[in-house]
Structure formats: structure tokens, C-alpha cells
Amino acid sequence: MPADHPARWESEEWRAGIEAWLLPALERSGRRPTGPVERDRVRFWSVVARVETDGGRVWVKENAPSQAFEAGLVEVVHGLVPQAVPPLLAVERERGWLATADLGAPMWHDDAVPPLRDWIDVLHDYGVLQRTLADHADAVLAAGVPHFPEAPDEVEAWVTSLVAGLRALDPGDPRRLDDAEVAAVETGLPRLRDAADRLAAAGVPPSLQHNDLHLGNAFRRPGGATAFIDLGDALWTHPFTAARIPLWIMRHRLQLDPEGPELRRAVDAYLEPWTDRFDGAELRGLLPDAARLSALHRAESWRRLQADVPLERVDEPFLRSVPEWLVDAAAPDPYAAAVAR
């Protein structure tokens, strides 16, 4: 039976334990805490807390077990590209504890969708980060980042295994695939295999797929560089799968023509770091296939998070996330149903 991690995070025992680690660690980093650790939010996948110090607010996070690698991943990224993550103050890899300095409000922090220029900057900066990390696979994977299959046979086997697992659930389990969903995935399986085949044939090396890349998870640092947070959904796989979410948001929230010049500028900015090795037009041609497989990555993220906790702890809006993303991935248009999510 999975542990009830949210109940533990809501306990005074958890807060006392995190304080016993965090407060001395902050003092060693040159910051003196001026208040207690306060929980900011508890979800079934993580707890985020804050503490005020004489050097400003500090954020501390613990993920559910399947995503506890985030602390070590941030440490690796900080060592390679420090400006790409918030200032790192303390890490406890074994327990997945991460403390970072506050950077103010994220680039998307209210109902107003950020302008095109911000999306272009973030896509470009994330592309640069991916290009850098592609040369450091050993360090990233050693942090515990899961490797998602890329070879067509392996992608097909992953989908088939997930379908079997979801189909085997009790009839009353909301995560169970119904007959129509099974048929839809089986019909779309050749599309997934073909997409994986084209991506593999292009020869672009794997890198870090953020798996939830948007401007709510991005901060503009002094000097203009972008810092990224919430790396717990990440996978090591084809890099271009990271572009699906921001491009989808730009299409639907900024109401951009998928074939228009604005979206083309964003795509070109994202792909630019790779154009010294690959033809830009060929790279652009890979994005529809990457978008299709990225829906599998969302399914994988929710699958592992739901397995971390008792089913009753999973918030109702997320109970169907795994089958929904799986069906999206296999659909003729993998963007079609995702607008509601």
C-alpha cells in the first residue's frame, strides 16, 4: 500500500524535521532565518514551504518518491548552467529536499497570458539548456532522472504495457481504460511507432524533457536569463518533446495561427541552438512527432505520481489523467482533446 505522503507533509513531525535540516543549512549558506518554516501548499505530488531570512525568502520543496530526483537534478543543472535554475542554497538528495532563493513572481503569475516575446525567450533559453545538458547525460541520469524509451519497439512496448495495466484495474477504478479507449489506442499505435521512428532516425541526441514547460515555471533573472523550476516531471528523452506545452498554450491562449509567423518565430528560437549540427527545416519537421510522444510523457508523469499515494489521495480532476493523455497521444490530432487540460 502506498504511503500517505500528504498526511506526513501536513504533520508537525514533518515540519520539525525539515526545520532541523533547513535552518542550519541556511546559516551555513550565509542566511539567518528570521521566522519559522511555513507550508505554502501541499498536493498529492509535493509539498512546498517557505521561510523568511535576513537575505530574503527561501523556498523548500519535497516531492513524492517517484519525483524526489528533482533535488539532485537541480543540483546538477546548477553546477553546469547556474543561471538556469534559482540560486541553490541547500540539497539533501537522499530525502529529496531542495532549498532555493526566491526570485519573485514567475513570468506567468495571473490571468493575463504573457506576451509572445516572453514565450520566445523562454523557448530559446530552454533550448540552450537542453543543448548543454545533452553532453552531460551521465550526470543527469545519475541524479535519478528517468529515461523514457525512444526506440520504436520500446515505445510500442511501453504503450502496450500501460494499456494492459490500466485495462486490468477493477471496473470501478476511474483510471481503467474502457473498450472504446483501448480501441482508440490500439488504432493509433502505428502513429506512435511511426513518430518514434522518425525522431530516432533524425539523430538528435536525448536531453532533459521538462515535461511541464510554461511561463508559470519560469523566472526572468537579473540580466535577462531564464531560470526554470518544477523539474520533478522531467524525463531524459528526445529534447523536442518539451516544446509541446508552450506551443500548445501559444496556439490556444494567444490565439496564434499554427502556420503563422509568430509561432514560426518561437519555433525557430527554440530550435536555433541545434542548427549548427542539423538543418533547421528538418528540425521543424520533427515537432509534430515530438508533440505526439510528449503526450505519453504526461501520461507517465501522472502514472508514477498516482502510484506514489493511496488512490483516495489523488485529486478528482487528475484521476483520469493517465488514460486521457494516452488516448491523446494515439489520436489523429494529439492536440485536439488537450485544450481542456
What can you tell me about this protein's structure?
- The protein is an alpha+beta fold.
- The chain has 2 domains: 5-101, Phosphorylase Kinase, domain 1; 116-340, Aminoglycoside 3'-phosphotransferase, Chain: A, domain 2 (Alpha-Beta Complex), CATH 3.90.1200.
- The chain has helices at 5-9, 12-28, 70-80, 116-133, 137-142, 152-167, 179-202, 244-253, 261-271, 280-308, 321-330; strands at 38-42, 46-53, 56-63, 88-92, 97-101, 207-209, 218-220, 226-228, 235-237.
- The chain has a 5-stranded antiparallel sheet with strand order 1-2-3-5-4, with helices on both faces. Strands 6-9 form a two-stranded antiparallel ribbon. A two-stranded antiparallel ribbon has the order 7-8.
- The two termini are 29 Å apart.
- The model has no long low-confidence stretch (mean pLDDT 96).
Low-pLDDT stretches: none
Strand fraction equals 5-15%
Biggest sheet features: 5 strands, antiparallel
Question: What string gives the helices and strands in order?
Answer: HHEEEHEEHHHHEEEEHHHH
From the N-terminal CA to the C-terminal CA, the straight-line distance is 29 Å
- What is the multimeric organization of the chains shown? single chain
CATH architecture of the largest domain: Alpha-Beta Complex
Secondary structure: number of strands:
9
Give the overall average pLDDT: 96
What's the number of domains? Answer: 2
Strand arrangement, major sheet = 1-2-3-5-4
Structural class: alpha+beta
Nearest-angstrom radius of gyration?
20 Å
Q: What is the CATH first-level class name of the largest domain? A: Alpha Beta
With helices defined by DSSP (H or I, 4 residues minimum), what is the helix count?
A: 11
